[in-house]
Amino acid sequence: MSTQFKVENYTANSFVMVEGKKNADNFYIIMKGRVKIAKENPVVAEEPYTILGPGDFFGVVSCMSGHARLESAVALENVSLISVENDKFGLLIQKNPAVAMKIIRFFSRKLREFDHAITSLTLKHSGIDGPEHLYSIGEYYLKKRNLKHAIYAYQRYIHYCPTGQFRDNALEKLKTLKAPFKAPDQPNLKNMNRTYPDNTMLFCESELGDELFIIQDGKVKITKVVDEEILLAVLKAGDIFGEMALLDNKPRSASAISYGNVSVLAINKSNFEGMVQAQPQLATRLIQLLSERIWTAYRQLENLLIRDPLGRIYDTLLTQIEKQKIPIEYKKPHSFEFGSKELINMVGLSQVQGEALIVQLLEDKNISMGEGKLVSTDMQDLEKTVLFYRKQSILERKREANKNR
Q1: Which domain holds residue 58?
Q2: Rounded to an integer, what distance in angstroms lies between the CA atom of residue 203 and that of residue 160?
Q3: Cα end-to-end span (Å), the chain
Q4: N or C: which end of the chain has fewer CB within 10 A?
Q5: Looking at the predicted structure, is the pLDDT value of residue 247 above 80?
Q6: What's the pLDDT tens digit per position in 124-172?
Q7: β partners of residue 30
Q8: Residue 353: pLDDT above 60?
Q9: Are 244 and 250 a contacting pair, CB within 8 Å?
Q10: Domain containing residue 322: CATH number
Q11: Spatial contact of 27 and 5, defined as CB atoms under 8 Å apart
Q12: How many Å apart are CA 119 and CA 181, to the nearest integer?
């Protein structure tokens, strides 16, 4: 492998990677020695630092997502590292598909941890439910008169929980809906191409699954029921979804519903590794997707760690700019595609608290409102403001930790 890729050597105690550095276009695989990975402000779901050794990798998230480095890396002793540039990733997979599988599995586990932490902090509830939860989903859709989705959830509940406490209720509901229970169709493993008409549930949150999907044509809504149905994303041709259940055997964390007619490619556990080897671009796309999701989840957790709610509002604005990978420059303006109401919802504040904070936000000479949309007249100033609030929160937590010693 090293003949195709650059090998870099670092002496003990030297920095390999610095947190916050932008335009990072490579990641590292350790050949020899140990490296310490640390963050200035570790998020809830993480250890304060990690020690990595030969065969381990780091820097993949920033390299494959195109965002700034999330962590620093310091050589604990003299180390030799393979440096892989993002445009050489496909070549790496062809030579060593096991590396791609290792990264994908690690990412899926990391994403689950982050999702769990975010849900616990924001909803005070773990958010990872087993198939027993399918009955509640059925009840929700029945109440909303969305009979198609209610039938799907009830049928899956009976299939996965044949002796569950609500089995008889679910059977009765299906009878009333003139939809007698039938086990889910067994997918044809040889036919990976599937088509679904509009408003069809491809899978429901909390059910078990062992397939990921790539959209060939059309759109898919990703939703989750938390008191109400929340729209998490609308995916289009080329997007991948459902990979978490395939990679780590956990129940689905959200539902996928066709938005218009849709054609998908379904990939299951038995053909996944073969597909990665035969089509390196699939693994590259999947790792780019997981990297972007990890970056987004990490920024959400960072946001939740900011104590001052006004700081969280500023940070949410900065995140929206960073998501689009817009270069942050001095005095460069940016117009957001949303107004104050949407911003309050993004931060998860009550309308009353949010409106009072928006008044404070608009006192900033570099933030204004134009035609109902928010505008930052100086992105660099916005970034500096966010760094101030982050540092303030770090100092507060350190003071509290010292008091408790």
Answers
A1: 6-89
A2: 13
A3: 49
A4: C
A5: no
A6: 544 446 899 999 999 999 999 999 999 999 999 999 999 999 999 999 9
A7: 81
A8: yes
A9: yes
A10: 1.10.10.10
A11: no
A12: 33
